[in-house]
Design a protein that fits this description.
Blueprint (H helix, E strand, L loop, with lengths): L1 H40 L4 E2 L7 H4 L3 E8 L5 E8 L2 E12 L5 E10 L16 E9 L19 E2 L4 H7 L8 E4 L18 H27 L3
Parallel strand pairs: 1-2, 3-7, 5-8
Antiparallel strand pairs: 2-4, 2-6, 3-4, 4-5, 6-8
Length: about 230
Amino acid sequence: MALYGGLLLAVLLPAFISLGLWQWNKAERKTAIQAELDLRSHDAAIAMPISGIDVESLRHHRVRLRGSYDAAHQVLIDNRLYQEQAGYHVITPLRLSGSGTLVLVNRGWLAAPADHQQLPPAAVPVGEIELTGIVVVPPQRFFNLAPQASSGWEPVWQNLDLARFHELLAAPVPALVVQLDPDAPGGYVRDWPRPDERAERHRSYALQWFGFALASLGIWIYFLVRRP
């Protein structure tokens, strides 16, 4: 019996510790991202270069852009919740003045109509404008609930797929998104979620896994000691 218990412990203990470390590291990464965002986003806005854009050097910085929106290629990112209400994130490409480069701008959250088959009106400002916002790099690992169209343009996407933008638009599209500043015109709800908003939950999960590991070790030692 002790042998079987030892073998089971040899499987469970590393698994529990590994899961605990995974959750703890997720919390640390989110906390580090928030710290970087807090540090960089309060600096003065820097001008977005019109070519040779270095995404990493702009990450979490406030930038200033001038150009005109490409209304024909605006997309609504589906299944975005705000205060427990379903809606969309409005992503509109901005063609930088003096360049063919398109920069994706997240103009905020827009509530979905009661009839989800209908799309909410998302008017696009016309003419050349100047705006400011925070540069973020969206994740490129996601799960689509349904197959995406391989050609043509769709007004609603399940996820912000930068590779898809590259394929469908005949223009350079940097791998970043500018989250429009709350006081910038032409946007919707811009109460952007904090990267670290679930960090404490991940730490709580980590402590639970570490607790399972400790409990497993304690149970094995208990039965080992009381064995006749």
